[in-house]
Design brief:
The complex is a heterodimer. Chain A contains 7 helices and 7 strands; from the N terminus they run H-E-H-E-H-E-E-H-E-H-H-E-H-E. By secondary structure, chain A is an alpha/beta fold. Chain B has an 8-stranded mixed sheet, with helices on both faces. In chain B, strands 2-3 form a two-stranded antiparallel sheet. Classes of the chains: A alpha/beta, B alpha/beta. Chains A and B meet through helix 3 and strand 3 of A and helix 9, strand 12 and helix 10 of B.
Chain lengths: 194, 364
Amino acid sequence: MARKDFKVISEWVKQDSRILDLGCGDGALLKLLSKERNGSGYGVDTSIDKIKKSLDNNINVINADINNKLDYFSDDSFDYVILAQSLQVVNNPVNLIKEMLRIGNEVIISFPNMGYWKSRFYLFLKGRMPVTSELPYSWHATPNIHLCTIKDFKQMCHTNNFTIVDEVISSGKGSTVSPSLSNLLGESAIFKVR
Amino acid sequence: MDIIKEHKLSIDIPLKLKSGKTLNSYDLVYETYGQLNDNKDNAVLICHALSGNHHVAGHHEGDNKPGWWDNMIGSGKPINTNKLFVVCVNNIGGCHGSTGPASINTETGTNYGFDFPVVTVQDWVNSQKVLMDNLGINKWQFVVGGSLGGMQAFQWALDYPDYIDNAIIIAAAPKLTAQNIAFNEVARQAIMNDPDWCGGNYLKEDKIPKRGLALARMLGHITYLSDKSMAEKFGRDLKQEKIGFNFDVEFQIESYLRYQGEKFVNSFDANTYLLMTKALDYYDPVSDSEFIDKISSTMTKFLLISFTSDWRFPPSRSEEIVKTLISFNKSVSYACVKSDGGHDAFLMKNDNYFDVMRNFIENN
Protein backbone atom coordinates (compact mmCIF):
# COMPACT_ATOMS: atom_id res chain seq x y z
CA MET A 1 0.00 0.00 0.00
CA ALA A 2 1.39 3.39 -1.01
CA ARG A 3 1.38 5.99 1.73
CA LYS A 4 -0.92 9.00 1.47
CA ASP A 5 1.93 11.47 1.10
CA PHE A 6 3.52 9.37 -1.66
CA LYS A 7 0.53 9.99 -3.93
CA VAL A 8 0.84 13.76 -3.59
CA ILE A 9 4.62 13.69 -4.00
CA SER A 10 4.29 11.58 -7.13
CA GLU A 11 1.83 14.14 -8.57
CA TRP A 12 4.24 16.97 -7.81
CA VAL A 13 7.35 15.36 -9.27
CA LYS A 14 7.92 16.04 -12.96
CA GLN A 15 8.78 13.33 -15.50
CA ASP A 16 12.44 12.19 -15.73
CA SER A 17 13.48 14.05 -12.58
CA ARG A 18 16.62 13.56 -10.51
CA ILE A 19 15.51 12.82 -6.98
CA LEU A 20 17.23 12.56 -3.62
CA ASP A 21 15.13 10.92 -0.90
CA LEU A 22 16.47 11.57 2.60
CA GLY A 23 15.45 9.02 5.21
CA CYS A 24 14.26 6.80 2.38
CA GLY A 25 13.26 3.85 4.60
CA ASP A 26 12.59 0.78 2.47
CA GLY A 27 12.91 2.78 -0.76
CA ALA A 28 9.20 2.49 -1.66
CA LEU A 29 8.89 6.17 -2.63
CA LEU A 30 11.84 6.13 -5.04
CA LYS A 31 10.58 2.87 -6.49
CA LEU A 32 7.19 4.49 -7.07
CA LEU A 33 8.73 7.63 -8.57
CA SER A 34 10.91 5.52 -10.83
CA LYS A 35 7.87 3.63 -12.07
CA GLU A 36 5.41 6.52 -12.39
CA ARG A 37 7.73 9.42 -13.26
CA ASN A 38 10.80 7.67 -14.67
CA GLY A 39 12.64 9.38 -11.83
CA SER A 40 16.15 8.42 -10.82
CA GLY A 41 18.50 9.24 -7.98
CA TYR A 42 19.38 7.99 -4.55
CA GLY A 43 17.81 7.17 -1.25
CA VAL A 44 19.73 7.91 1.94
CA ASP A 45 19.24 6.09 5.20
CA THR A 46 21.30 5.48 8.31
CA SER A 47 19.81 2.08 9.19
CA ILE A 48 21.39 -1.04 7.69
CA ASP A 49 17.98 -2.75 7.80
CA LYS A 50 16.53 0.00 5.60
CA ILE A 51 19.53 -0.27 3.26
CA LYS A 52 18.82 -3.98 2.86
CA LYS A 53 15.13 -3.35 2.14
CA SER A 54 15.96 -0.57 -0.33
CA LEU A 55 18.32 -2.92 -2.18
CA ASP A 56 15.49 -5.42 -2.29
CA ASN A 57 13.36 -2.68 -3.90
CA ASN A 58 16.23 -2.24 -6.37
CA ILE A 59 16.83 1.45 -5.75
CA ASN A 60 20.18 3.18 -5.37
CA VAL A 61 20.68 3.72 -1.67
CA ILE A 62 23.46 5.34 0.32
CA ASN A 63 24.13 4.39 3.93
CA ALA A 64 24.60 7.77 5.60
CA ASP A 65 23.26 9.88 8.46
CA ILE A 66 21.24 12.85 7.21
CA ASN A 67 22.12 14.70 10.41
CA ASN A 68 25.66 15.07 9.09
CA LYS A 69 26.65 17.36 6.27
CA LEU A 70 25.44 15.82 3.03
CA ASP A 71 28.73 16.33 1.21
CA TYR A 72 28.10 13.34 -1.04
CA PHE A 73 25.87 15.67 -3.02
CA SER A 74 26.99 18.78 -4.88
CA ASP A 75 25.07 22.07 -5.22
CA ASP A 76 21.97 22.03 -7.43
CA SER A 77 22.54 18.42 -8.46
CA PHE A 78 18.92 17.23 -8.04
CA ASP A 79 15.50 18.41 -9.20
CA TYR A 80 13.93 17.41 -5.91
CA VAL A 81 15.22 16.67 -2.46
CA ILE A 82 12.55 14.88 -0.46
CA LEU A 83 12.16 14.42 3.29
CA ALA A 84 9.08 12.26 3.74
CA GLN A 85 7.89 11.80 7.32
CA SER A 86 11.40 12.23 8.72
CA LEU A 87 11.52 15.93 9.66
CA GLN A 88 10.61 15.08 13.24
CA VAL A 89 13.59 12.72 13.72
CA VAL A 90 16.40 15.00 12.57
CA ASN A 91 18.67 16.84 14.98
CA ASN A 92 18.54 20.22 13.35
CA PRO A 93 15.61 20.67 10.93
CA VAL A 94 16.60 24.19 9.84
CA ASN A 95 20.15 23.19 8.93
CA LEU A 96 18.88 20.14 7.09
CA ILE A 97 16.39 22.18 5.03
CA LYS A 98 19.19 24.63 4.17
CA GLU A 99 21.32 21.68 3.07
CA MET A 100 18.39 20.30 1.01
CA LEU A 101 17.94 23.69 -0.70
CA ARG A 102 21.66 23.73 -1.50
CA ILE A 103 21.44 20.35 -3.21
CA GLY A 104 18.07 20.54 -4.96
CA ASN A 105 15.96 22.95 -6.95
CA GLU A 106 12.90 22.13 -4.89
CA VAL A 107 12.44 20.58 -1.50
CA ILE A 108 9.47 18.43 -0.57
CA ILE A 109 8.75 17.82 3.10
CA SER A 110 5.95 15.78 4.63
CA PHE A 111 5.34 15.49 8.37
CA PRO A 112 2.65 14.58 10.89
CA ASN A 113 0.79 17.63 12.23
CA MET A 114 0.87 17.88 16.03
CA GLY A 115 -1.90 20.50 15.78
CA TYR A 116 -4.32 17.83 14.51
CA TRP A 117 -7.38 17.82 16.72
CA LYS A 118 -6.91 14.24 17.87
CA SER A 119 -3.42 15.05 19.12
CA ARG A 120 -4.74 18.17 20.84
CA PHE A 121 -7.55 16.26 22.50
CA TYR A 122 -5.19 13.48 23.57
CA LEU A 123 -3.10 15.97 25.50
CA PHE A 124 -6.10 18.08 26.57
CA LEU A 125 -8.38 15.30 27.80
CA LYS A 126 -6.00 12.52 28.79
CA GLY A 127 -3.27 14.88 29.92
CA ARG A 128 -0.67 12.69 28.22
CA MET A 129 1.63 12.98 25.24
CA PRO A 130 -0.31 11.94 22.13
CA VAL A 131 0.01 8.41 20.83
CA THR A 132 -1.74 8.06 17.45
CA SER A 133 -1.58 5.80 14.42
CA GLU A 134 0.82 8.26 12.74
CA LEU A 135 2.86 8.70 15.93
CA PRO A 136 2.67 5.34 17.65
CA TYR A 137 5.51 5.83 20.18
CA SER A 138 5.25 6.67 23.87
CA TRP A 139 7.18 9.82 24.84
CA HIS A 140 10.22 8.07 26.33
CA ALA A 141 10.77 5.71 23.43
CA THR A 142 10.05 7.96 20.48
CA PRO A 143 12.61 8.79 17.77
CA ASN A 144 10.51 11.90 17.10
CA ILE A 145 12.47 14.68 18.76
CA HIS A 146 11.22 17.63 16.68
CA LEU A 147 7.47 17.33 16.31
CA CYS A 148 5.69 20.45 15.14
CA THR A 149 2.35 21.79 14.00
CA ILE A 150 1.58 23.17 10.56
CA LYS A 151 1.66 26.67 12.06
CA ASP A 152 5.07 25.99 13.61
CA PHE A 153 6.42 24.78 10.27
CA LYS A 154 5.18 27.86 8.42
CA GLN A 155 6.65 30.11 11.09
CA MET A 156 10.02 28.35 10.78
CA CYS A 157 9.94 28.76 6.97
CA HIS A 158 9.10 32.45 7.34
CA THR A 159 11.89 33.07 9.86
CA ASN A 160 14.47 31.37 7.65
CA ASN A 161 13.30 32.77 4.31
CA PHE A 162 12.22 29.39 2.98
CA THR A 163 9.52 30.04 0.38
CA ILE A 164 6.54 27.69 0.51
CA VAL A 165 5.34 27.24 -3.07
CA ASP A 166 2.75 24.51 -2.60
CA GLU A 167 1.08 22.58 0.19
CA VAL A 168 -1.38 19.74 0.61
CA ILE A 169 -2.93 19.09 4.01
CA SER A 170 -4.99 15.97 4.41
CA SER A 171 -7.29 14.74 7.15
CA GLY A 172 -7.08 11.35 8.79
CA LYS A 173 -9.39 9.97 6.10
CA GLY A 174 -7.13 11.30 3.36
CA SER A 175 -9.42 14.05 2.10
CA THR A 176 -7.93 17.51 1.51
CA VAL A 177 -8.60 20.07 4.23
CA SER A 178 -9.47 23.75 3.68
CA PRO A 179 -6.49 26.07 4.42
CA SER A 180 -8.21 28.03 7.23
CA LEU A 181 -8.76 24.92 9.35
CA SER A 182 -5.69 22.98 8.24
CA ASN A 183 -3.80 23.20 11.53
CA LEU A 184 -6.77 21.67 13.36
CA LEU A 185 -8.18 19.21 10.82
CA GLY A 186 -5.00 18.19 8.99
CA GLU A 187 -3.40 14.98 10.16
CA SER A 188 -0.49 15.11 7.74
CA ALA A 189 1.07 17.95 5.80
CA ILE A 190 3.16 18.10 2.63
CA PHE A 191 5.02 21.23 1.65
CA LYS A 192 7.00 22.20 -1.39
CA VAL A 193 9.69 24.71 -0.47
CA ARG A 194 12.24 26.76 -2.42
CA MET B 1 30.58 -31.17 -0.78
CA ASP B 2 31.68 -29.96 -4.21
CA ILE B 3 35.02 -31.26 -5.44
CA ILE B 4 36.61 -28.53 -7.51
CA LYS B 5 39.38 -28.92 -10.06
CA GLU B 6 41.57 -26.11 -11.27
CA HIS B 7 42.07 -25.37 -14.96
CA LYS B 8 45.00 -23.90 -16.81
CA LEU B 9 44.91 -21.65 -19.85
CA SER B 10 48.20 -21.08 -21.70
CA ILE B 11 48.30 -17.85 -23.65
CA ASP B 12 50.93 -17.12 -26.29
CA ILE B 13 49.57 -13.74 -27.35
CA PRO B 14 51.88 -11.17 -25.70
CA LEU B 15 50.40 -9.11 -22.87
CA LYS B 16 51.58 -5.52 -22.92
CA LEU B 17 51.99 -4.27 -19.37
CA LYS B 18 51.44 -0.79 -18.01
CA SER B 19 55.14 -0.58 -17.17
CA GLY B 20 55.96 -0.80 -20.88
CA LYS B 21 57.27 -4.35 -20.58
CA THR B 22 55.65 -7.34 -22.24
CA LEU B 23 54.85 -10.86 -21.10
CA ASN B 24 55.26 -12.86 -24.31
CA SER B 25 53.43 -15.90 -22.99
CA TYR B 26 51.82 -16.79 -19.71
CA ASP B 27 49.58 -19.29 -17.95
CA LEU B 28 46.37 -18.45 -16.14
CA VAL B 29 45.16 -20.92 -13.54
CA TYR B 30 41.50 -20.60 -12.65
CA GLU B 31 38.48 -22.36 -11.20
CA THR B 32 34.80 -22.20 -12.08
CA TYR B 33 31.66 -22.99 -10.09
CA GLY B 34 28.11 -23.42 -11.37
CA GLN B 35 27.06 -23.51 -15.01
CA LEU B 36 27.32 -20.87 -17.72
CA ASN B 37 23.81 -20.49 -19.16
CA ASP B 38 22.93 -20.60 -22.86
CA ASN B 39 22.83 -16.80 -23.15
CA LYS B 40 26.25 -16.65 -21.46
CA ASP B 41 25.05 -13.78 -19.29
CA ASN B 42 25.16 -15.26 -15.78
CA ALA B 43 28.93 -15.10 -15.23
CA VAL B 44 30.59 -13.65 -12.15
CA LEU B 45 34.27 -12.79 -11.87
CA ILE B 46 35.78 -12.92 -8.40
CA CYS B 47 38.99 -10.89 -8.06
CA HIS B 48 41.35 -11.95 -5.31
CA ALA B 49 43.29 -9.74 -2.92
CA LEU B 50 46.95 -9.61 -1.91
CA SER B 51 47.40 -13.12 -0.53
CA GLY B 52 44.42 -14.74 -2.25
CA ASN B 53 44.30 -17.14 -5.16
CA HIS B 54 41.93 -18.77 -7.62
CA HIS B 55 40.65 -21.39 -5.15
CA VAL B 56 37.77 -19.30 -3.89
CA ALA B 57 35.13 -21.92 -3.07
CA GLY B 58 34.49 -25.64 -2.80
CA HIS B 59 37.04 -28.31 -1.94
CA HIS B 60 39.96 -29.78 -3.78
CA GLU B 61 40.14 -33.58 -3.79
CA GLY B 62 41.34 -34.78 -0.39
CA ASP B 63 41.43 -31.29 1.08
CA ASN B 64 39.55 -30.51 4.31
CA LYS B 65 39.71 -26.77 3.95
CA PRO B 66 37.43 -25.07 1.40
CA GLY B 67 38.35 -22.11 -0.81
CA TRP B 68 38.95 -18.74 0.84
CA TRP B 69 35.47 -17.28 0.21
CA ASP B 70 33.42 -20.46 0.50
CA ASN B 71 30.99 -18.82 2.95
CA MET B 72 29.99 -16.33 0.23
CA ILE B 73 30.01 -18.51 -2.88
CA GLY B 74 28.08 -21.73 -3.41
CA SER B 75 24.66 -23.30 -3.68
CA GLY B 76 22.12 -21.03 -1.93
CA LYS B 77 24.81 -18.61 -0.74
CA PRO B 78 24.78 -14.86 -1.56
CA ILE B 79 26.76 -15.54 -4.75
CA ASN B 80 24.49 -18.42 -5.62
CA THR B 81 26.06 -21.02 -7.88
CA ASN B 82 22.63 -22.52 -8.57
CA LYS B 83 22.05 -19.50 -10.78
CA LEU B 84 25.46 -17.98 -11.41
CA PHE B 85 28.62 -19.17 -13.15
CA VAL B 86 31.52 -18.05 -10.98
CA VAL B 87 35.09 -17.67 -12.23
CA CYS B 88 38.19 -16.89 -10.18
CA VAL B 89 41.70 -16.65 -11.61
CA ASN B 90 45.08 -16.52 -9.95
CA ASN B 91 46.50 -13.18 -11.06
CA ILE B 92 49.73 -13.03 -13.03
CA GLY B 93 52.66 -12.41 -10.75
CA GLY B 94 50.96 -14.80 -8.31
CA CYS B 95 52.36 -17.99 -6.89
CA HIS B 96 49.51 -20.48 -7.17
CA GLY B 97 49.84 -21.67 -10.76
CA SER B 98 49.53 -18.58 -12.94
CA THR B 99 52.80 -17.24 -14.32
CA GLY B 100 54.76 -15.39 -11.66
CA PRO B 101 58.27 -14.85 -10.31
CA ALA B 102 58.66 -18.52 -9.33
CA SER B 103 57.62 -19.75 -12.81
CA ILE B 104 60.09 -20.81 -15.46
CA ASN B 105 60.73 -18.14 -18.07
CA THR B 106 60.65 -20.16 -21.30
CA GLU B 107 63.04 -17.67 -22.91
CA THR B 108 65.80 -18.27 -20.37
CA GLY B 109 64.94 -21.71 -19.07
CA THR B 110 65.19 -20.58 -15.45
CA ASN B 111 62.66 -19.02 -13.11
CA TYR B 112 61.94 -15.32 -13.44
CA GLY B 113 62.82 -14.43 -9.86
CA PHE B 114 63.32 -10.73 -9.45
CA ASP B 115 63.23 -10.23 -13.24
CA PHE B 116 59.48 -10.73 -13.32
CA PRO B 117 57.94 -7.45 -14.51
CA VAL B 118 55.98 -5.27 -12.10
CA VAL B 119 52.28 -5.84 -12.75
CA THR B 120 49.38 -3.49 -12.02
CA VAL B 121 45.66 -3.75 -11.39
CA GLN B 122 45.09 -2.69 -15.01
CA ASP B 123 47.34 -5.51 -16.24
CA TRP B 124 45.37 -8.03 -14.21
CA VAL B 125 42.09 -6.76 -15.61
CA ASN B 126 43.53 -7.09 -19.13
CA SER B 127 44.60 -10.68 -18.44
CA GLN B 128 41.18 -11.46 -16.92
CA LYS B 129 39.61 -10.16 -20.15
CA VAL B 130 41.75 -12.67 -22.10
CA LEU B 131 40.40 -15.46 -19.90
CA MET B 132 36.85 -14.15 -20.34
CA ASP B 133 37.18 -14.29 -24.14
CA ASN B 134 38.61 -17.79 -23.97
CA LEU B 135 35.70 -18.97 -21.81
CA GLY B 136 33.21 -17.52 -24.32
CA ILE B 137 31.68 -15.15 -21.77
CA ASN B 138 30.09 -12.09 -23.40
CA LYS B 139 29.50 -10.02 -20.29
CA TRP B 140 30.11 -10.34 -16.57
CA GLN B 141 26.86 -10.02 -14.69
CA PHE B 142 28.98 -9.17 -11.65
CA VAL B 143 32.62 -8.49 -10.99
CA VAL B 144 33.24 -8.82 -7.26
CA GLY B 145 36.25 -8.24 -5.05
CA GLY B 146 37.38 -7.23 -1.59
CA SER B 147 40.39 -5.00 -0.84
CA LEU B 148 42.82 -5.24 -3.77
CA GLY B 149 40.12 -7.36 -5.45
CA GLY B 150 37.68 -4.46 -5.14
CA MET B 151 40.16 -2.26 -6.98
CA GLN B 152 40.09 -4.75 -9.88
CA ALA B 153 36.28 -4.68 -9.90
CA PHE B 154 36.36 -0.86 -10.11
CA GLN B 155 38.96 -1.03 -12.89
CA TRP B 156 36.75 -3.40 -14.91
CA ALA B 157 33.98 -0.80 -14.92
CA LEU B 158 36.46 1.81 -16.16
CA ASP B 159 38.42 -0.21 -18.74
CA TYR B 160 35.75 -2.58 -20.10
CA PRO B 161 32.40 -0.85 -19.50
CA ASP B 162 30.70 -2.91 -22.23
CA TYR B 163 31.69 -6.18 -20.60
CA ILE B 164 30.36 -5.67 -17.07
CA ASP B 165 26.87 -5.04 -15.69
CA ASN B 166 27.60 -4.69 -11.97
CA ALA B 167 30.70 -4.08 -9.87
CA ILE B 168 30.72 -5.02 -6.19
CA ILE B 169 33.61 -3.27 -4.44
CA ILE B 170 34.18 -4.33 -0.83
CA ALA B 171 36.54 -2.86 1.79
CA ALA B 172 38.52 -1.05 -0.89
CA ALA B 173 39.99 2.39 -1.53
CA PRO B 174 40.42 4.57 -4.62
CA LYS B 175 44.16 4.78 -3.88
CA LEU B 176 46.53 4.09 -1.02
CA THR B 177 47.37 6.70 1.59
CA ALA B 178 50.92 7.46 2.72
CA GLN B 179 50.22 5.28 5.78
CA ASN B 180 49.11 2.36 3.57
CA ILE B 181 52.22 2.68 1.41
CA ALA B 182 54.37 2.93 4.55
CA PHE B 183 53.08 -0.44 5.80
CA ASN B 184 53.78 -1.97 2.40
CA GLU B 185 57.29 -0.53 2.37
CA VAL B 186 58.11 -1.99 5.79
CA ALA B 187 56.86 -5.36 4.55
CA ARG B 188 59.05 -5.11 1.45
CA GLN B 189 62.07 -4.07 3.47
CA ALA B 190 61.56 -7.06 5.76
CA ILE B 191 61.73 -9.37 2.74
CA MET B 192 64.52 -7.61 0.85
CA ASN B 193 66.73 -7.33 3.93
CA ASP B 194 66.55 -11.05 4.60
CA PRO B 195 69.98 -12.43 3.49
CA ASP B 196 68.16 -15.42 2.02
CA TRP B 197 66.32 -13.16 -0.42
CA CYS B 198 69.58 -13.08 -2.46
CA GLY B 199 68.69 -10.00 -4.49
CA GLY B 200 65.41 -11.65 -5.41
CA ASN B 201 67.01 -14.72 -6.95
CA TYR B 202 66.71 -17.00 -3.93
CA LEU B 203 65.26 -19.93 -5.89
CA LYS B 204 68.42 -20.16 -8.01
CA GLU B 205 70.43 -20.19 -4.77
CA ASP B 206 68.09 -22.86 -3.35
CA LYS B 207 67.06 -20.58 -0.50
CA ILE B 208 63.83 -19.02 0.76
CA PRO B 209 63.69 -15.68 2.65
CA LYS B 210 61.50 -17.21 5.32
CA ARG B 211 62.24 -14.73 8.10
CA GLY B 212 61.56 -11.68 5.96
CA LEU B 213 58.37 -13.02 4.42
CA ALA B 214 57.05 -14.15 7.82
CA LEU B 215 57.77 -10.72 9.26
CA ALA B 216 55.97 -9.05 6.34
CA ARG B 217 52.98 -11.28 6.91
CA MET B 218 52.93 -10.62 10.66
CA LEU B 219 52.92 -6.89 10.04
CA GLY B 220 50.22 -7.18 7.39
CA HIS B 221 48.13 -9.41 9.60
CA ILE B 222 48.03 -6.80 12.38
CA THR B 223 46.56 -4.30 9.92
CA TYR B 224 43.85 -6.76 8.85
CA LEU B 225 42.47 -7.16 12.37
CA SER B 226 40.88 -4.59 14.63
CA ASP B 227 42.13 -3.64 18.09
CA LYS B 228 38.85 -4.91 19.50
CA SER B 229 38.95 -8.29 17.76
CA MET B 230 42.55 -8.81 18.90
CA ALA B 231 41.61 -7.85 22.45
CA GLU B 232 38.69 -10.28 22.41
CA LYS B 233 40.63 -13.13 20.85
CA PHE B 234 43.91 -12.78 22.75
CA GLY B 235 43.78 -9.94 25.23
CA ARG B 236 46.91 -10.13 27.36
CA ASP B 237 46.63 -13.90 27.73
CA LEU B 238 49.93 -15.64 28.40
CA LYS B 239 51.16 -18.97 27.08
CA GLN B 240 52.60 -19.82 30.49
CA GLU B 241 51.16 -19.00 33.90
CA LYS B 242 53.58 -16.18 34.64
CA ILE B 243 55.71 -13.67 32.76
CA GLY B 244 59.31 -14.86 32.50
CA PHE B 245 61.28 -11.61 32.19
CA ASN B 246 62.80 -12.84 28.95
CA PHE B 247 62.22 -12.59 25.21
CA ASP B 248 60.57 -15.92 24.52
CA VAL B 249 57.06 -16.07 23.09
CA GLU B 250 55.04 -15.11 26.16
CA PHE B 251 51.79 -13.53 25.08
CA GLN B 252 49.26 -15.50 23.03
CA ILE B 253 49.20 -12.79 20.38
CA GLU B 254 52.93 -13.26 19.83
CA SER B 255 52.44 -16.96 19.37
CA TYR B 256 49.52 -16.38 17.00
CA LEU B 257 51.44 -13.93 14.82
CA ARG B 258 54.45 -16.22 14.61
CA TYR B 259 52.18 -19.07 13.62
CA GLN B 260 50.55 -16.94 10.91
CA GLY B 261 53.97 -15.92 9.62
CA GLU B 262 55.29 -19.47 9.51
CA LYS B 263 52.14 -20.80 7.86
CA PHE B 264 52.29 -18.11 5.19
CA VAL B 265 55.92 -18.85 4.30
CA ASN B 266 54.94 -22.38 3.28
CA SER B 267 52.27 -21.26 0.83
CA PHE B 268 53.46 -17.96 -0.58
CA ASP B 269 56.33 -16.64 -2.66
CA ALA B 270 58.27 -13.63 -1.37
CA ASN B 271 58.67 -11.99 -4.78
CA THR B 272 54.91 -12.32 -5.37
CA TYR B 273 54.37 -10.50 -2.08
CA LEU B 274 56.61 -7.68 -3.30
CA LEU B 275 54.70 -7.45 -6.59
CA MET B 276 51.28 -7.44 -4.93
CA THR B 277 52.23 -4.59 -2.59
CA LYS B 278 53.52 -2.59 -5.56
CA ALA B 279 50.27 -3.12 -7.44
CA LEU B 280 48.48 -1.69 -4.41
CA ASP B 281 50.82 1.29 -4.13
CA TYR B 282 50.51 2.21 -7.81
CA TYR B 283 46.73 1.96 -7.97
CA ASP B 284 45.16 5.40 -8.52
CA PRO B 285 42.60 5.31 -11.36
CA VAL B 286 41.17 8.75 -10.59
CA SER B 287 44.50 10.39 -11.48
CA ASP B 288 44.41 8.70 -14.90
CA SER B 289 44.11 11.38 -17.61
CA GLU B 290 41.28 9.39 -19.19
CA PHE B 291 39.38 8.91 -15.93
CA ILE B 292 36.62 11.44 -16.64
CA ASP B 293 35.94 9.93 -20.08
CA LYS B 294 35.98 6.42 -18.65
CA ILE B 295 33.75 7.08 -15.66
CA SER B 296 31.36 9.13 -17.78
CA SER B 297 30.87 6.37 -20.31
CA THR B 298 30.42 3.40 -17.97
CA MET B 299 26.86 2.19 -17.39
CA THR B 300 28.01 -0.23 -14.69
CA LYS B 301 25.92 -0.39 -11.56
CA PHE B 302 28.00 -0.22 -8.38
CA LEU B 303 27.66 -1.60 -4.88
CA LEU B 304 30.20 -0.53 -2.28
CA ILE B 305 30.51 -2.10 1.14
CA SER B 306 32.73 -1.04 4.04
CA PHE B 307 33.19 -2.24 7.62
CA THR B 308 33.17 0.00 10.69
CA SER B 309 36.31 -1.45 12.32
CA ASP B 310 38.42 -1.61 9.14
CA TRP B 311 41.34 0.73 9.64
CA ARG B 312 43.38 -0.46 6.68
CA PHE B 313 40.71 0.78 4.25
CA PRO B 314 38.19 2.44 6.59
CA PRO B 315 34.63 3.39 5.53
CA SER B 316 35.82 6.89 4.60
CA ARG B 317 37.90 5.36 1.78
CA SER B 318 34.91 3.53 0.26
CA GLU B 319 32.94 6.76 0.69
CA GLU B 320 35.49 8.58 -1.47
CA ILE B 321 34.62 6.19 -4.31
CA VAL B 322 30.89 6.56 -3.62
CA LYS B 323 31.17 10.34 -3.70
CA THR B 324 33.05 10.25 -7.00
CA LEU B 325 30.44 7.95 -8.53
CA ILE B 326 27.56 10.14 -7.31
CA SER B 327 29.23 13.23 -8.77
CA PHE B 328 29.06 11.49 -12.16
CA ASN B 329 25.41 10.45 -11.60
CA LYS B 330 26.35 6.77 -11.61
CA SER B 331 24.05 4.07 -10.33
CA VAL B 332 25.58 3.30 -6.93
CA SER B 333 24.54 1.89 -3.57
CA TYR B 334 26.61 1.88 -0.41
CA ALA B 335 26.39 -0.05 2.85
CA CYS B 336 28.60 0.51 5.88
CA VAL B 337 28.37 -2.69 7.90
CA LYS B 338 28.96 -2.78 11.64
CA SER B 339 31.66 -5.33 12.37
CA ASP B 340 34.55 -5.83 14.77
CA GLY B 341 36.41 -7.92 12.19
CA GLY B 342 38.69 -5.16 10.87
CA HIS B 343 39.78 -5.29 7.23
CA ASP B 344 39.34 -9.08 7.23
CA ALA B 345 35.61 -8.57 7.92
CA PHE B 346 35.06 -8.89 4.17
CA LEU B 347 35.98 -12.57 4.46
CA MET B 348 33.78 -13.30 7.47
CA LYS B 349 30.17 -14.33 7.76
CA ASN B 350 27.99 -11.44 8.89
CA ASP B 351 24.21 -11.40 8.48
CA ASN B 352 23.90 -7.75 7.43
CA TYR B 353 26.82 -8.00 5.03
CA PHE B 354 25.50 -11.19 3.47
CA ASP B 355 21.93 -9.81 3.19
CA VAL B 356 23.25 -6.70 1.44
CA MET B 357 25.15 -8.90 -1.04
CA ARG B 358 22.20 -11.24 -1.56
CA ASN B 359 19.61 -8.48 -2.04
CA PHE B 360 21.77 -6.61 -4.53
CA ILE B 361 22.71 -9.73 -6.48
CA GLU B 362 19.17 -11.14 -6.65
CA ASN B 363 17.79 -7.86 -8.01
CA ASN B 364 20.48 -7.24 -10.60
